[in-house]
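Whiteboard transcription, Tuesday session. T.W. wrote the structure tokens on the left side:
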């Protein structure tokens, strides 16, 4: 078999076209093709090794050559790579530059980011309707999704558990308010309702399924695949949570086109340098803030505050503003750990607030005397 001809074949007829191979990836890979390396996409990563689909089939490859100290540059499901054409073991020689990357902060104290999926076009946030949706958590997922460069989609799973159509409509409206510019799709995998709309969204490009354990990600994946590929388990009735049935991130080809990455359930979803993503999720608040009299308005007691005016008029929910502030503070703390300029700005802000508090206390004491 002539491996060089496989690497250089037209993108539309390339054996990897089903996995997202296109002319841009082909151009990016050209120099590695000249070296006799094989193009491939990572479909699974496990302890320093990965499964890579190549023009000659799926191969097991070692990542020792491309394991850097930076956790954001490790090989990840969805990466396009160059691998050895032969050998035992085979090695991944390099990763092609990523178009998008979904990253969250780890729960460790080392302030590291963790990449969950690479080269993703759609970030599908699965939210179970077995319990009342946590709007704050949805906003957190969406901030990371927007920051990744992917188009977010919210899928309300287990819609058949909602007893009335009116109630379901209100739930959809609540989530839509927390997800401006994002499609919100109620789906019942058990009854097959809403799957055609979701399939039309994910048939083009790469999609990643995200959400808590028990959100129904693997059930969704099986429904889209038309067969039980991913294992699923029942969730607890009391809180709708499930066990970590999926333990690795797996990239699968959909029969209707496109590929999907199923991920393990996420207990924690920490922001990672997601300032732009937060702004996108709360675009209506940032739009109002631009109309405030003062550019550094804290939306408290300042005169001419457009945000407070919207709150008083009932046009902006108080919960949205509190969630916005919370995510901004969290993101600022994360960025400050690696950015000296942001740390300095935070220190100045703390000193300013401390001085204001001290002055207010002294004024109060003066009135007492």
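and on the right, the sequence the group agreed on:
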């Amino acid at each position: 078999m002539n491996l060089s001809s496989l690497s250089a074949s037209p993108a539309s007829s390339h054996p990897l076209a089903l996995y997202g191979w296109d002319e841009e990836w082909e151009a990016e890979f050209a120099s590695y093709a000249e070296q006799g390396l094989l193009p491939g996409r990572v479909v699974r990563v496990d302890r320093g090794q990965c499964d890579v689909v190549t023009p000659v089939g799926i191969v097991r490859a070692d990542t020792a050559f491309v394991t850097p100290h930076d956790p954001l540059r490790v090989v990840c499901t969805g990466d396009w790579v160059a691998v050895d054409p032969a050998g035992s073991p085979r090695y991944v020689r390099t990763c092609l530059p990523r178009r998008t990357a979904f990253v969250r902060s780890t729960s460790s104290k080392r302030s590291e980011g963790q990449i969950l999926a690479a080269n993703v076009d759609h970030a599908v946030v699965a939210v179970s309707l077995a319990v009342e949706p946590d709007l704050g958590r949805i906003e957190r997922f969406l901030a990371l999704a927007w920051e990744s460069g992917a188009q977010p989609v919210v899928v309300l799973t287990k819609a058949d558990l909602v007893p009335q159509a009116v109630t379901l409509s209100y739930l959809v409206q609540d989530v839509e308010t927390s997800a401006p510019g994002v499609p919100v799709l109620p789906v019942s995998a058990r009854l097959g309702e809403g799957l055609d709309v979701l399939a039309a969204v994910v048939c083009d490009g790469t999609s990643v399924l995200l959400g808590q354990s028990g959100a129904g990600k693997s059930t969704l994946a099986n429904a889209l695949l038309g067969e039980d590929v991913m294992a699923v388990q029942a969730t607890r009735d009391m809180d709708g949570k499930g066990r970590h049935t999926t333990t690795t991130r797996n990239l699968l080809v959909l029969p209707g086109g496109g590929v999907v990455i199923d991920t393990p359930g996420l207990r924690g979803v920490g922001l990672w340098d997601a300032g732009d993503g937060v702004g996108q999720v709360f675009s209506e608040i940032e739009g109002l803030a631009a109309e405030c009299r003062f550019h550094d308005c804290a939306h408290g007691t300042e005169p001419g505050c457009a945000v407070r005016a919207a709150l008083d008029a009932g046009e902006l929910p108080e919960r949205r503003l509190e969630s916005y502030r919370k995510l901004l503070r969290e993101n600022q703390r994360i960025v400050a750990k690696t950015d000296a300029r942001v740390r300095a700005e935070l220190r100045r802000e703390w000193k300013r607030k401390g001085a204001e508090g001290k002055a207010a206390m002294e004024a109060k004491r003066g009135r007492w005397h």
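Someone added at the bottom: The CA atoms of residues 121 and 279 lie 20 Å apart.
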